[in-house]
Amino acid sequence: MLTGWQRPGVPLADSLATALREAVLDGRFRVGDRLPSERSLAAQLGVSRGTVVAALARLRSEGWLTTRAGSASTVRLPSRLGERYAPASLDRADPVDLRHAVPAAPREIYTAAAQRALGRSARLLLESGEPDAGLPELRELVAARHTAEDLPTRPDQILITSGARAAMTLLITHLAPRRAVVENPAFHGTLALLRRSGARMSPVRVSASGWDPGQLARAFGEAAGHLACLIPDFHNPTGALMDRETRRMIAGLAEAHRVTVISDETMRDLDLRDTPSPEPRIPGSVLVGSMSKSVWGGLRTGWIRAPAALIRELLLDPMSGVCAPPPMEQLLACELFPHLDALLNRRRAELRTQRDHLAARLREHEEWTFTLPEGGLTLWLHTRTDTLVKRAAQAGLDLLPGPAFSPDGTLTHWLRLPYTAPPATLDRAVGRLTSCAT
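Above: the chain's sequence. Below: its structure in token form.
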């Protein structure tokens, strides 16, 4: 399991500790496995017992091992690693890959929910498991959450999907717009779906100060009878939060021009203000939600909230079955829902700390400017050079450049920088970015 673990120029105890950590993270050692005795390990690896003792002591102090007097060491995951927002790969990856703003699963909460779901799966497993609108229990939970946020919702207004992208895919495929209002910048995944559909795009400028009202009016006029895809809550990538006046304006424009507004709410729960306060939704909009940013990207569970008539239409679309999540995944989501608010409180605190840490490090330099967002997962960075992302990649830092978020290939002096990594990794990222900007 540990072949080739020794690294030139690195003390043996350090190399051994690193190799054992990697073996746990790669699944070669399972959580709960017992290691051989110190004497046996030393003999198998061909090193002194003192080297093994030093390596295991380090892992024990970091929370990777537990040892009872007179017994072997048992493998575990440190609680800080099992419950934090950042994926473990961000600690050790080289190059540092910040192209994705995604969380790791909250291990203890997730594992307990999975065990509870399995324990009450008997009735579910007796059914066909064929795709439909979603488990009634999950539709009720999602509807109740919307109702609690002053948007009365019935379960028949909810369609469960395998994530937000599946929801957007189903809606865009079904509605088949010839024209679509989009933000500039916009989430690159939505732009890709619209391009694939053949829709022409009418962009609206978004900055930290909000949505350009003149461009909104013009774009909705151009897209009359078709579609608008917006992220009003902690917009990806800028982090902007749409004010109530703009939301009312969009509702009026949508009604006047018969435009269907899809509000992507993937970031809505990631409100990093000291006292989170959800804004009212855009009246009449179709809502797309997901648990991918609040819980885990691997939990492929999202939803569409829309008029019941549209939900019935979507269920008749052949893509509906393709975009539906497995029933067991939905049952797991049901078990996680009651713990969602407590989990969000912890994750917001962690993200707030990481956002502020990254902002402080960036403000030590004059090469870029940004506005601190009130929520979401990323900073939208303005740079002096349009080659910074390419140079950063050569220095071991992978980022997404501004044009990836632009419907027309502009925004060449911008880049998205997530703060989902732990502070030490953010420090590495800023160091490499700084070396490329000077």
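The domain at 12-77 is CATH 1.10.10.10 (Arc Repressor Mutant, subunit A).
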